[in-house]
Amino acid sequence: PLLALAVMSREKPGDHPEYLYFPMPQRGIERTLLRAGVKTDADLQFRLECNELPKQVSFAVDLEHLGRADLTALNQMCWAIHAMRPPERKKLEAAAVMAMPHGPDEVRRLTKNLDQFDFVPSIKTPAEYGRYMIQESGHFEYDANLEDFYDFLGYGLQRMEKEQGRFNDLGYIAYHGTTPL
Q1: For the whole model, what pTM was predicted?
Q2: How far apart are CA 162 and CA 144, in angstroms?
C-alpha cells in the first residue's frame, strides 16, 4: 500500500484499531469505518502507520486533519499514483514541487496532467541541461568532434528562459500546459 492508516472511534478509544490500506476499493473504506465504530467526522481518529507516497506529495496532503469525505479523495489519489511507474512517480514529485498542490484532489489532477510537464532527472545546472538537450534528447545530431564548439551553458539558459523551467532537488522541470499552475 501507499498509505496505511489505523482507524479508531473516539467513542471507543480502548478498542483495537481497524486499518485502511490505500489504494483500496471504496466499499472497503466504508466497511472499515463501520467495524471501527466511526459514525461522524468528529468520531474519526486515526494514526498514520505507513506512508510510501512521494515526499512532496505527502507535504501537499494534510494527513493530520482528515474527515470521512477526505478519505475518498485520498483513496482516488492513491489509485492514480499506484498506476504510475517509478520514473513517473519521480516526475510527479518534481511537478508537485513546482505546482505546490493543496490536497489529494489537486495531486490527483496533477497525476492526470503529467504529460504537460517536461522532466529531466538529476540535472542541476543550466550547462548540464544544455548538454542533455544537445547530446541526449534526440533533438539534435551530436558530433563529439565538435565538443569544444558547443555552448552548453548558453543553450541551457536560453531553453530555460523560453520554457520557464526550473531546477529542484530531483532535476529540471518545465510546464507546457495552458492552464496556470
Answers
A1: 0.83
A2: 26
